[in-house]
Amino acid sequence: GQNIDQPTEMTATEGAIVQINCTYQTSGFNGLFWYQQHAGEAPTFLSYNVLDGLEEKGRFSSFLSRSKGYSYLLLKELQMKDSASYLCAVRFTGGFKTIFGAGTRLFVKA
Amino acid sequence: NAGVTQTPKFRVLKTGQSMTLLCAQDMNHEYMYWYRQDPGMGLRLIHYSVGEGTTAKGEVPDGYNVSRLKKQNFLLGLESAAPSQTSVYFCASTTRIGGETQYFGPGTRLLVL
Q: Alpha-carbon distance A15 to A31, whole Å?
């Protein structure tokens, strides 16, 4: 089966750190994406993890544990512009079929 | 280099009408995808294509048909629109080699009355 879970909403304070979790149950796992989506806009790519471990890109980091079916997106030094939805997506082998979770709406408050 | 473009940006249909959404990419990508996004939900895969002349069903294919006659274009058709198909439709593409990033189009907002 294909099941991707992430929290519906989170709130954090400007300048703080927030971790958005994603768990998945899939077969034929190829990799895991994180996307950012502002209201009314298309998703934009943040990260792609294929192997276990942490990948860091500036203020954003993404972690993957394939054995646990678990990933998180870590956002540091939060800014107001980080208020958006964050989508976790799993790619499958063979054709790169990609399934998205429902997304986590992050609210950054002053 | 326009990336991924979608036509039209917005459309209103009456129940039972038909229409075709066009997705075009100029990055020579092999794989293309159609998603729909409803309020409070993530993207759900409708159909996808791994190359010219080939298509496959995604999570929610019913009520939609697709065609990939040219590598750069991926068409999504609604033969008989229903109010349940009111949604925002996103097209995306990626390369076969590597393909770490899916490039998304700006979306098409469809309202079915």
A: 30
